[in-house]
Amino acid sequence: MFLAGNLHFVLTYTVPDNLPKGAAVVVLGGERNRWRINAGVDAYFAYKAELFVISTLQVADVMAGWAESAGVPEARILTENDSRSTLQNALFTRETLA
Predict the structure, then answer these.
(1) Cα 50-53-56 angle, rounded to 5 deg
(2) In Å, what is the CA distance from 61 to each residue of 20, 57, 58?
(3) What is the pLDDT of residues 39-98, one digit of tens each?
(4) Residue 66 CB: number of other CB atoms within 10 A?
C-alpha cells in the first residue's frame, strides 16, 4: 500500500523510485486535498496500481471526481467517508479493502 500523504511527497512532490508495484494507492484527506489527489494519481499510474482508495471525512466523493478527471477509472476508485483521524483512516481503509 502506498500513502500519497507521506513525508516524501510533502517534501518533494515526486513519485519515489524505490516503491514496489502495489495493489492500491491510498490518499488521505487533509488541508491539501487536491495536491494529495495529484500525488496519488501520479503514483497510481507509475506503479500500475489496481485500486485508488480515498480516505477522508465527507469529501472523498469530491476527491474521487478529481481522480477520475485525472484519468483514474471510476471502477478502480474506492472511497471511505467516515474517518476523523489518521488512525481511523488506517482502520477504515483496511475494512474498505477487506
Answers:
(1) 175
(2) 27, 10, 8
(3) 899 989 988 888 999 998 888 888 999 999 999 999 999 999 898 888 898 899 888 888
(4) 18
Q: Report the distance separating Cα 47 and Cα 59, nearest Å.
A: 25
Indicate the average pLDDT of the chain.
Answer: 80
pTM beyond cutoff 0.70: yes
CB atoms under 10 Å from CB of 21, counted, come to: 10
**Local structure of 20: helix, strand or coil:** coil
Q: How far apart are CA 81 and CA 95, in angstroms?
A: 12
Task: Give 64's contacts (C-beta < 8 A, 6+ positions apart).
Answer: 54, 74, 77, 79
- State pLDDT tens for residues 16-46: 666 666 678 889 887 667 888 998 999 899 8
Q: Cβ atoms within 10 A of the Cβ of 20, count?
A: 6
